[in-house]
């Protein structure tokens, strides 16, 4: 039986916290794990093209390579989302990153395509949870008025992984120092195990999570430390305004299928099934798509690197717009823009326009990413937030397993234009489901959003 607390709760104290540079520092540290997830995600495009060019795998085999990573992420996202609600945001964050690093080292030294795929799948189990836990962590720790800004800032940091992996691929893939260059690119990603303990030091547990789990003493200690950090910076805090009590209870998976969360769960499953087609369909396949148009591997990697350099700018757009305009409608507008831009990209043949339209799609994709990562983390209560987000987001990983095979078939049968028509239709469905079913979330506390 739950116990209703009538005094000022951790939630009330969290909701009165002002915007502070402390949150920028906290989000920057938390986002380091996301950097490794993005490194792994965008690794497939750069080294996948190299594996095809070196005849280690075929174009059809590339679909297995990409699919293996996403299959692992499907299990990791759903499993660690639930684990994070049970053991805490910080512990789930650290353990999942260690799993990724361990298996990535094995992948770097794998001797065959089969073992490469197996170890990539295992690494995906660990890395797949990072964005879910990070989105949940940041949403619970930052002021509601700037929640979208902090998620976008987190993505700004993580998206630096894209130009980093593209540059490393461009510099290392053509080389053969002791082993193939692509193996060095993979091995560098495993450095997460070296820095993971530094990341963990000093990271606070979410006081919201501690309070929901009935860890009131620990929650109060974490809250006092957080409040003191901000007092040291700005001098004082606004008064606490008690709004409601908090129920000390353990969330259950079945809750995401009960009103009012059932409709949100269904909406997010449909959304994630199709959004990944547009997002990863372009990012993971663009080097191979360029090669299919007669561009050499080296030039393909160079074009990919130039496009990748613009990845961090998409989240900057998100930082400027996410809290200023309703996130729901921004997702709709940006989804439709991606659909149109993809068709235009497929018609380009001149290098300048290939790069230009690639940059436009990259900016739109990454702006889109900042919006939906903030949005989906707002729709469930604290006790089941990581469970709900992890389960629904895992469908994007499952979708990506099959998307690779579909894109390979479309590329073979209908060319690059056919691939982007497929991507555009997926983004139209994304715009429709969010526009028709999505609730409004801007400038509302997490508790208010999750109660209606």
SSE layout and pairing:
Layout: H1 10-15, H2 21-30, H3 32-53, H4 59-87, H5 89-108, H6 113-127, H7 130-141, H8 147-158, H9 161-172, E1 176-177, E2 179-180, H10 181-189, H11 192-200, H12 207-212, H13 216-234, H14 261-283, H15 286-292, H16 297-308, H17 313-321, H18 327-346, H19 351-376, H20 385-437, H21 446-450
Antiparallel strand pairs: 1-2
Helix pairs in contact: 2-8, 3-4, 3-8, 3-9, 3-10, 3-15, 4-5, 4-6, 4-20, 5-6, 5-7, 5-10, 5-11, 8-17, 8-19, 9-10, 9-16, 14-19, 14-20, 15-16, 16-19, 17-19, 18-19, 18-20
Q: Could you explain how this protein is built, in words?
A:
- This protein has 452 residues and is an all-alpha fold.
- The protein has a single domain (13-237, 249-450), classed as Growth Hormone, Chain: A (Up-down Bundle).
- It is built from 21 helices and two strands.
- A two-stranded antiparallel ribbon has the order 1-2.
- β1 (176-177) and β2 form a beta hairpin.
- α4 (59-87) packs antiparallel against α5 (89-108) and α4 packs parallel to α6.
- The protein is globular and about 65 Å long.
């Amino acid at each position: 039986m739950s116990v209703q607390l009538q005094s000022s709760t951790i939630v009330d104290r969290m909701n009165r916290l002002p915007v502070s540079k402390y949150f920028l520092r906290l989000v920057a540290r938390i986002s380091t794990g996301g950097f490794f997830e993005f490194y792994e995600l965008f690794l497939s495009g750069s080294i996948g093209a190299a594996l095809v060019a070196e005849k280690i795998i075929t174009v059809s085999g590339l679909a297995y390579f990409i699919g293996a990573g996403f299959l692992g992420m499907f299990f990791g996202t759903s499993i660690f989302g639930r684990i994070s609600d049970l053991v805490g945001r910080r512990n789930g964050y650290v353990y999942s990153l260690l799993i990724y690093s361990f298996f990535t080292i094995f992948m770097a030294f794998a001797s065959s395509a089969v073992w490469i795929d197996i170890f990539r799948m295992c690494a995906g189990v660990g890395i797949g949870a990072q964005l879910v836990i990070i989105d949940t962590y940041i949403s619970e720790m930052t002021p509601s008025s700037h929640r979208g800004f902090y998620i976008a800032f987190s993505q700004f940091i993580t998206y630096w992984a894209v130009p980093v992996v593209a540059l490393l691929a461009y510099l290392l893939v053509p080389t053969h120092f002791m082993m193939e260059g692509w193996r060095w690119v993979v091995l560098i990603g495993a450095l997460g195990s070296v820095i993971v303990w530094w990341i963990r030091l000093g990271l606070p547990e979410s006081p919201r999570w501690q309070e929901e789990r009935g860890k009131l003493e620990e929650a109060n200690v974490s809250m006092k430390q957080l409040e003191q950090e901000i007092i040291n910076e700005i001098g004082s805090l606004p008064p606490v305004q008690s709004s409601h009590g908090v129920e000390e209870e353990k969330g259950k998976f079945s809750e995401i299928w009960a009103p009012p969360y059932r409709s949100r769960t269904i909406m997010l499953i449909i959304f994630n099934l199709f959004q990944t087609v547009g997002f990863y369909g372009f990012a993971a396949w663009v080097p191979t798509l360029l090669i299919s148009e007669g561009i050499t591997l080296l030039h393909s990697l160079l074009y990919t690197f130039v496009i990748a350099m613009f990845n961090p700018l998409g989240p900057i757009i998100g930082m400027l717009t996410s809290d200023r305009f309703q996130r729901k409608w921004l997702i709709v507008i940006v989804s439709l823009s991606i659909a149109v831009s993809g068709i235009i990209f497929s018609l380009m043949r001149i290098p300048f326009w290939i790069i230009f339209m690639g940059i436009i799609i990259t900016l739109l994709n990454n702006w889109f990413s900042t919006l939906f990562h903030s949005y989906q983390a707002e729709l469930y209560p604290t006790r089941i937030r990581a469970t709900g987000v992890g389960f629904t987001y895992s469908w994007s990983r499952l979708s990506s397993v099959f998307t690779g095979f579909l894109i390979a078939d479309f590329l073979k049968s209908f060319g690059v234009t056919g691939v982007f028509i497929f991507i555009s239709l997926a983004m139209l469905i994304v715009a429709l489901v969010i526009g028709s079913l999505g609730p409004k979330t801007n400038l509302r506390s997490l508790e208010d959003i999750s109660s209606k």
